[in-house]
Write a structure and sequence with these properties.
mainly alpha
């Protein structure tokens, strides 16, 4: 119940995003299930809090394919698609929102501003719920893909 209320409040916290996209998942996995998997993957130790170290382990460890501690857009998009099955165009949209420095790479300097954005209660920590709210906001700002042949 708390999670549902928190998600409803997310629109007020984050507002509407002017950049829209089309969400589509090649395996027809619903957005909330993808978000659950992303949150579970990011919370490496299962304590319901995302520490900077966990974020680094998850994103740099899984998404940095060449070992340089920087994740370029193409590496991120390919890995997000592989892990969560969202289409590359949507993975690109996610990358754009995570790339806080707007330099075309995800790295350590992106995680501090992201933590500040996600930390709704300003306690210096990002809980699983706060991360879920952030991710839900990104997915909800997208228009769900509708198969044109199913109408």
């Amino acid at each position: 119940m708390f999670l549902a209320i928190a998600i409803l409040l997310a629109a007020g916290v984050y507002g509407q995003d002017p950049q829209h996209c089309i969400h589509n998942n090649v395996d027809s996995i619903a957005a909330d299930k993808v978000i659950e998997k992303v949150v579970a993957d990011a919370d490496v130790n299962g304590d319901h809090e995302l520490s900077p170290l966990e974020v680094i382990i998850e994103f740099i460890g899984k998404f940095d394919t060449n070992g340089d501690t920087m994740i370029p857009r193409d590496e991120f998009v390919a890995k997000w698609h592989e892990l969560y099955r969202d289409v590359p165009e949507f993975a690109n949209y996610i990358f754009t929102h995570l790339d806080q420095t707007n330099d075309g790479f995800l790295g350590l300097f992106d995680f501090v501003p992201l933590q500040a954005i996600m930390d709704i209660d300003h306690d210096g920590r990002v809980s699983d719920i706060e991360f879920t709210i952030y991710m839900t906001h990104l997915y909800q700002d997208c228009v769900p893909y509708k198969n044109q042949n199913s109408a």
